[in-house]
Each structure stands twice: as structure tokens, then as C-alpha cells.
Amino acid sequence: MEDLPTRPYGLDDQLLRGVREERAPRFRLYRWEGVAVVIGRGGKQQLELDRAALAADRVPLYRRPGGGCAVVLDPGNLVVSVGLPLPGIGGITSAFTHLSDWFRAALADCGVPGVRQRGVSDLALDDRKLGGSCIHRSRDLLYYSTTLLVDPDLDLVARYLPHPPREPEYRAGRPHGEFMGSLRGMGLIDDRAAFASSLKAACAESLPAAWERSRGPGDGNH
Amino acid sequence: MFEFILPDLGEGIAEGEILKWYVDEGGDVIEDAPLMDVETDKAAVTIPSPRGGHVHALKGKVGDIVNVGDVVVVIDDGSGEAAAAEEAVAHDTFAHPDEPAAAAPAAEAPPAAQPGVRRPVPAAPATRRLARKLKVDINLVTPSGPGGRVTPEDVHRFAGQGPSAPAVPAAAATDHVPARAVAGDTAFAEFAAHASATIPFLEIEPLPDFAVEGPVEVEKLRSIRRKVARKMVTSMALVPHVAHMDEADVTDLDAFRRKEKERRAGGAGEKLTLLSFVIKAVTAGLKEAPSFNASLDPFREEIVYKKYYNIGFAADTGRGLVVPVVNGTDTKSIVQIADHVYDKAVRAREGTLPADEMRGGTFTITNIGPLGGTALMPTINYPEVAILAMGKVQKKPVVRDGEIVIRKMLPLTLAFDHRIADGADAARFVAELVRQLSDPNLLLLET
Predict the structure, then answer these.
(1) What's the average model confidence in pLDDT over B42-64?
(2) ipTM score above 0.90
(3) How far is A202 from chain B, CA to nearest CA, in Å?
(4) A220 and B40: CB-CB below 8 Å?
(5) Which of B145, B169, B198 is the last residue of a domain?
(6) What pLDDT, in 10s, does the model give residues B97-145?
(7) Interface check B169 vs A, CB under 8 A
(8) Coil, helix or strand at residue A201
(9) Average pLDDT for residues B377-395, to the nearest whole number?
(10) What's chain B look like in SS3?
């Protein structure tokens, strides 16, 4: 089967334009209304997607600027995207760490403590994945986006995504349903809307500090 | 011509896969316009072109792995052939505009006798900045770092000596050909000729086509595997290894450990392993034998004795071998060491242990015991000078006070740098280790 047509993931374009113009950090938190699949910048459809199922269900396929494997977005996900003005094209590792710390601290403030960064870019509670992150770095701009599994339909993940071509060690070969968790399914939140609102406030409050840390002496910010 | 080198993208990021070229060979590129997309373990990166001009050559195709420090594209920017190397040095890391670019002194042209093509050498951005500050053409510096990288010490040495008196023949500096590049006949011939000329009897030939004999699967040497390869080749090439072997009777220690571990269940020290006791014993031994906690600088001909004790331990992860480091083991109790070992091992396996927790080791221990095996010959974790290998603890019949008794015996192998230490030093060091491990009371005195 041939590759399906993809659309550029442009939902954060406006955010990034604003960062470039104002030279100040910005973030947004949003929920996807329908169902879509987003593949990474270098993702290979034949390895990461069940193209026949996607075509049959007419699910739109997007290609995001950042790397990583394919994800399914549905109304049960929250997407948090951040743009940071950072000089040069280096400093990826330290910025990634600071942003991951920033987001996990915001989660803790909202009653979800103990989330750790696992694998290359997962957010996990114990051995269950609760989110995934990606980064795209271009000159003087770093774009970070993370997808939080609040109350997703994991059956859709199993339908559209075969077992990924690469996995973190802690996944240990588990299928999607056993590997991925959700905030609601694990009893960590009750009210999705209230949680989203408080998460947005927590993220906004601490983003300037995370930006400052990312701008500090790091690993190659030229 | 301007040779653009893949710049440093972040700590621990040494390579990336080319996802896309925005330019074609023979076409034109505008300064600051997107040049290429590269995907690393952590991120996708759109790299802008640092120069405008005519694209002379792309040094890789989509899907290829490129290393930080590799030339990725050659741009004809009208600057001419002679300025190419200096241009690469001045711009390959997007240096801050206020950093002066190095101007190659007119009298410091490369020696005419150097064979092969002159290539920009790999080096960290800080090293390049240092070279610019000292007005050193980094491409003329003899590299001593892993993978042919130029280190700050190399630059200082070069600045002090000048290009006319390099520590080793200048050809080594300019003829370095990454193993990965030895694919084309010309590059391979160049590499093999230089290597053969440097090392008598060394003969390097291209691998045969194994697919002729039967099915094969080819996998790129990537990430940690490549780093391990570089570290091991560097160590084996630079360090004359000698091994000393012995066995420690850990019967009493093991009984003590098991009892303590049970007592501490659910609290600090619940992961009390034999490794943590060995780390403590090694630390005590290093205080008595500082040669094994040193590094040898072959260029300055100096031995650097470290007065701190940071013990690395080899950890097998799904992604390959890594060496987390427990710092300050002389100031930590065995229980604290055990907790650090457990925590770092878990994070190493998960891939979340930061690079700075795998640096700064002064001595390494590799424990193959849980996987079996009576002994192994470990490779020194250069620039350290010694490594201890632990084999599998086994019950064995041994003679004690004239009688045959069954004891738990731990095989130990100390591999060490014979430039710094001799066999007698190793024998004394290992004998002390054996003594400490055979009597837990001695070890507890160290806590």
C-alpha cells in the first residue's frame, strides 16, 4: 500500500510566529476535537501506521515538525505546545530537560505528582505512559509539544498504530493497552475541564522560570 | 569554498539522521535559509545555511547518519579554495558574532609533504572557541580525543609548540579518516595506506561481500554502540593492558549482606548488592595505591593523581553499555553507595541518566557475575588506568587450615595500564581487595 497523503501540523504555527516576533516564550494548551494521527518529522508510514485502517476510517494524517513516533489524537488528549526563543540551534538536551521538569511540576501542582520522564521523551507514572513529547529546533527557536493522555480512546491507538518500530526499555514489549495509561483511567483526576484549567494556570505561572533555565549555561547554546 | 560541519546540537547528541535536504547539488542556497533536517534521538532539527552560494556537494543522502563534526555540505561562496578550512572553523558552530574568527597566520601553511586530503577535524564548540582565541588553525592540530576529536589540551599543546613541532607526525592530524568514511575505494586506500605506514605489519582490507555466502542483515552502527566502539579502540590502541587475577572468599560477606538486606527491606540499603561492597573496598585500595586512581598524559609525559574517588560501574542497558559514576565514594557509606548504584542503574536502563552522571570516573568496575562466567579480560575505560572485573560468585572447594571446605568465591580481574603500574603493584592492590572482601569487619571500618 502506498503512503497516505499528509498535511503539515500547523496548529502551532501562530504560536511560533508570535514567539519569533516578540522574542518571548509562549505556550498554549488545547484539546483536539476529532480524531487524527500525527506522524513525526522523519516517521515512516509503513512502519508506524496501519494505513489501511486509517484510509478506511478517513482519519486525517498530519506530519509534525518534531521527531518521534506516531500518535493518535482524540478529544481525550490535551496538547501543550511551547515556543522558546533560544539563540543558535544547540542546547536541545538541556532545554528538553528543563521543559520536561516544568511540565511535570505543573502536573504535580494540579494533583498529579510522581510523573517521571522515561525513555527518550515519555512522561510516565510508574510503568504506564501518560504522555509523549517532541522537539523541533530551528535557528533561534525551540518548539516543544507534549501530548497528555487524559482520557483517550486506547482502542483507536491499537487500531491505527501497530507496535512501534522502536520502544523504550520500560515498555518491555507491552501492547498499547497495557503500556499506555490515562489520568482519568488511573483515577488521578475527576473533572477534565477543571483539570485543564488548573494545568493551564500552573504552566503559565512557571514558564518564564523554565525559559530562564533553558537560556542558562547549557549544552551548546551557541 | 566553505565546508559546513554539523554543529553541536546538545549534550549527548553525537549524531543524527538526515531527513531532508532543502537544497540540491548544483543549486543555490541563501544564507539563513533552511539547509537540511536532521533527526536525533531527542529532536528534529532544521539547520539553516550559514552561507549563501552555490551548493558544490552534499555529503550525505536522506537516511544517512551524520556525526557532529562531519562536513555535511560544501558551498561555493566565492571565497576560493585557500580559505575553505578557516571558513569552516569560523562558522561551523554558529559562533557568537563577537567571537573573533581565527585568521590563519600567513607563515603557517600546511606542510607540503602531508599526504591525503585536508579535512576539518571534529572538536567540541568550546575547543573551537579556544582555538580561535589562541589563533590556532584547529585543522592542523593533532587530535588525541576519542574518535579523532581535538581536545582543549591538544589546542594548548599546539599553541605552545607551533605547527612545526607537533607531538606526532602531522600526517596523523590531517589524514584522519572516520571508519565510516572508508566505503569508497579512494578513501579506503588513503586510510589503509596511512594506517599501514603508521603501524608495522598492520594490514587493513575491505570486508568481503558476506551476502555472497548467505543471507545477511546490515545495521548501522549507531549511538551508544558507536561510542563504545570508539572508547574501546582508543583504549586498546593507547594503553598497554596487563591483567592480574585472583579470587576473594566472600562467604562471610555474602552472609552479612543478605542479613542486612533483609533487615533493611523497604528502607535505605534495601538494594545492598555485592557491587556496593566492592566499590567501597576498591576505594580503600585506591587510597593505598594511587597509581590506579590516576591518568597518564602521554603528551606532557605526566601522571595525574586524582585525590577524589569516583567509581564507575558498567551497566548493560537495552541500548548498549553505559558507565554510571558514583562520586565521592570515600565519603559515602556502603548503604549510601548501594542506593546510588541502584538509582543510577535504573535511570541508565531507562535512558534518563544525564550525561554528567556518566562522566568524571576515576576507576571502573564491571560485574559480569549475574550473567555467569568465571573470568573476563576487561578493557580499561580510558583515560582511567585500571578496571576491575567481577565474575560469578560460586561455591568452590578450598583449603582452609589444612582442610577442604566449601566457600563462596568471587573471581576478580584487574586490568591496568602497564605504563603507570607494574605487576607487583597490581598484586598488592588485588591482595588488599581480597583481604577486605573476605572480612566484612574490615570493610565496615571504612564506612
Answers:
(1) 86
(2) no
(3) 25
(4) no
(5) B198
(6) 232 333 333 333 333 333 333 445 666 666 776 777 777 777 777 777 6
(7) no
(8) helix
(9) 96
(10) CEEEECCCCCCCCCEEEEEEECCCCCCEECCCCEEEEEECCCCEEEEECCCCEEEEEECCCCCCEEECCCEEEEEECCCCCCCHHHHHHHHCCCCCCCCCCCCCCCCCCCCCCCCCCCCCCCECHHHHHHHHHCCCCHHHCCCCCHHHCECHHHHHHHHHHCCCCCCCCCHHHHCCCCHHHCCCHHHHHHHHHHHHHHCCCCCCCCCCCHHHCCCCCCCCCCHHHHHHHHHHHHHHHHCCEEEEEEEEECHHHHHHHHHHHHHCCCCCCCCCCHHHHHHHHHHHHHHHCHHHHEEEECCCCEEEECCCCCEEECEEECCEEECCEECCCCCCCHHHHHHHHHHHHHHHHHCCCCHHHHCCCCEEEEECHHHCCCCCCCCCCCCCCEEEEECCCEEEEEEECCEEEEEEEEEEEEEEECCCCCHHHHHHHHHHHHHHHHCHHHHHCCC
Q: Read off the CATH number of the domain in which B170 is found.
A: 2.40.50.100
Domain that holds residue B170: 2-198
Q: How far apart are CA B278 and CA B125, in angstroms?
A: 38
Residue B60 belongs to a domain: yes
The reply to whether B209 falls in a domain is no
pLDDT at B115: 36
* Statement to judge: residues B57 and B129 lie in one domain: yes
Q: Are B344 and B375 in contact (CB under 8 A)?
A: no
Regarding whether B266 and B185 lie in a shared domain, the answer is no
Q: Are B186 and B278 contained in the same domain?
A: no
Q: How many domains does chain B have?
A: 2
Give me Rg for the CA atoms of chain B.
25
Same domain membership, residue B152 and residue B261: no
- What is the average pLDDT value for chain B, to the nearest integer? 78
Residue B224, in any domain of the structure? no
Q: Is A4 on the interface with B (CB under 8 A)?
A: no
Same domain, yes or no, for B34 and B183? yes
Nearest-Cα residue of chain A relative to residue B18: A42
Q: Are residues B262 and B395 in the same domain?
A: yes
**Bridge-partner residues for B73, per DSSP?**
B4, B58
**Does B187 share its domain with B249?**
no
B91 is catalytic: no
- Cα–Cα dist B90/B76, whole Å: 16
CATH 1.10.10.10 fits A7-215, yes or no: no
Listed by number, the residues of chain B in 339-398 with a beta carbon closer than 8 Å to a beta carbon of chain A are: 349-352, 354-355
pLDDT in tens, B336-353: 999 999 999 988 887 778
Where does the pLDDT of residue B403 fall: very low under 50, low under 70, confident under 90, or very high at 90 and above?
very high
Could you tell me the three cell numbers for A52?
489501511
CATH code for position B330: 3.30.559.10
Cross-chain Cβ contact A41/B93 below 8 Å = no
Residues B194 and B311 in one domain: no
Residue B231 counted as domain residue: no
Residue B164 pLDDT: 36
